[in-house]
Amino acid sequence: MSTARVTEIIASSSESFEDAVKHGIKRANKTLSHVKGAWVEGQKVVCDGEGKIKEYRVNLKVTFVLED
What we know:
This protein has 68 residues and is an alpha+beta fold. The chain has one helix at 17-31, and strands spanning 4-13, 35-47, 53-65. The protein is 22% helix and 53% strand. The termini are close together.
């Protein structure tokens, strides 16, 4: 039997939402052990003054299993 925990992180990318998710999961794995999955709770873009997208942001809920 195992116990899991969920933590929220925000990740960004200048490329795409998918790239932001990949960066977020990669970074979470540096700090958290036993990452099992994540879901995107929200998405947001940051635009420059001319309406062009500068940055894609995602709010991730990351699930990881706690060690005994």
